[in-house]
Amino acid sequence: MKFMTFTLLSITVLFGLYGLLHLFGASAPLIIFVTLALFCIFFGWLLPRILKRTNVKVWIFLGLLSLIGLMIPSSSLMADREPGPVSDAIWFTLFLLPSLALVSAAFLLYAGWGGTVPESDKISKGISLPLSILLIVKTIYNLYDLTLWDNTYDPLGYLWLILPIFVVLLSGLMLAVALPGKIKLAGSAYSILVSVSLIGVSTLAQRVDFRQETTGRAERIVAAIDSYYTREGRYPESLSLLTPRYILSLPKPMIMHGQDWCYDSGDGYYRLGYLDREHWSSPHLIGRTYKSVGEVSDPQPICMDAFLAMQIHIPDYPYTYLTDGE
């Protein structure tokens, strides 16, 4: 009973303090620092007890839940949302999700290697380790995707890794304490390998030029359009017609999160473009034409619909529209 009371009290304090900090206008770094401190106290007391008391099926359930959550790209943190408590709660959840997934992965490793799964329960034993590895791989990929999009704004770079690496080191320490015999080395291996992987993919992502990445993605779409034209004798009415025969999935331009390609086509023509900006804080949006084939019958500037949609979405921001060359 004391165990459950402490757990519920800790969770209540965590979210309650976050709410108070937000209510009084605390800065994001302060909120993150307080969150880290609470995590340290919470997990430092809780992890050893949880590892030994909880049925492996609970960790499998939480692992699957985390995996489902990771299907939402971490780059969604970059999305523009209407300010308010709901948006803040979504941001906070997405921010914590990779770290929670790494904790779940560590618990599943303990369940698979620590002998807590009965030999008769072959299904749980067979699920624990693969699910743990899948969580780690998916988390690393999500953080890579997040860092790519982070480059398009005022980048935080390695700061995104503070909480995940903290959780990895703490989880690895708990594994080293809780695992039996020589298997304790798995705790150190978990801390080192996952931390190095996180830093490595972050470094790779920070070196990516998002404009060159957008150009490369546009070129793949142009190649798919050409293949479609060769086969069908006309240009696709919509880019969605290209999948999955001509291109497996449609990559989006890596300029502003949530923006899609500007595309229109007709009899013997098409044009492909995207909304661009010189700087992440610039209110001047540029309708950039990547490729235009044939004589375009639509006199409307490219990406005008996307520009008007952004004005409606964020009416208070002083957006202005420019075209190539202006």
Distance between the termini: 69 Å
Count of folded domains = 2
Let me know the number of strands: 4
Radius of gyration: 24 Å
Judged by helices, strands and strand pairing, the structural class is alpha+beta
Shape: elongated
Note the total helix count. 9
Please provide a written account of the structure.
The chain is of the alpha+beta class and 326 residues long. The chain has two domains: 2-206, no CATH class; 210-323, no CATH class. It has helices at residues 2-23, 28-53, 56-69, 85-113, 122-150, 162-178, 185-206, 210-232, 304-313, and strands at residues 262-266, 269-276, 284-293, 320-323. Strands 1-2-3-4 form a four-stranded mixed β-sheet. A hairpin with a 2-residue loop joins strand 1 (262-266) and strand 2. The longest helix has 29 residues, at 85-113. It is elongated and about 75 Å long. It starts with a helix and ends with a strand.
Key traits:
single chain, 326 residues, alpha+beta, 2 domains, four-stranded mixed beta sheet, 9 helices, elongated, disordered N terminus
